[in-house]
Amino acid sequence: MTSQDAPGLAALRPRLPSPVQEVADDRFERHGVRLLLKRDDLIHPDLVGNKWRKLAPNLAAAAGRPLVTFGGAYSNHLRATAAAGRLLALPTVGVVRGQELADRPLNPSLARCAADGMRLHFADRAAYRRKSEPEALRAILRAAGAEDAYVVPEGGSNHLAVRGCRALGEELAGRADVVAVACGTGGTLAGLAEGLAPGQRALGVPVLKGGFLTAEVRALQEGAFGGPRGTWSLDDRFHCGGYARVPPALDAFAADFEQRHGLPVERVYVAKLLRALVVLAEEGAFARGTAVAAVVTGRPFA
Question: What class has domain 66-148?
Fold first, then answer.
């Protein structure tokens, strides 16, 4: 039984496999490269893209228990978890990084979480950084009144989530030579690479600076599959200064891509991925005849 076949989740009616759309773009065509878009943004209107793939197996494992998870003030993962709670009548608690935010008006992202029924708990940044330590985690859960809840880590990337993302690679078997995805915590890349067929490779484009994801992806594959899987690499050049940094040049690039292809481009992840692929094509990183699939993991927040 797959995670989406579990009781309750089938009623959400995800669109799987998500469609693959080939687009004509002269920035790729002049280098003999085909660009495909793996439209994971169309899986579900509320649990978009890799959020469905990572949350669904955790929702199945929770078996109706309340969920507690973690994120920053603009976390897509928090919004998706809150939406899942609303759709499944499941209590959710969101631990938000930054105690100082408790005294400020909720931004649109957190307001959406609250509207979907998520109870927000604001943790000071020092405690939040230590949340992977068992005693620190227990203290946070006690403070949040969520000691009996099922815990989903920040970004949703645990071993169940990584296994859930394996299907993404399987859906693209034989469709592309290179499959590229924007990376936050690395869980999607870890599962995607395992699901690809021999001869295919995965490319991760981190949206955070720091160069720490290689070890994270290896650890996630070790936990999920018992060791390294697939052929994958990371290119750390396209984070634009850090998470949620959207300089004017990136915003202009995304607006131009939207105009060319009629596709709303999410700025924090998807825009950085697409810009990276344009640059790589211009650098000659892809041999002529290569088919590159870009995973569209989200859409602009409305």
Answer: alpha beta
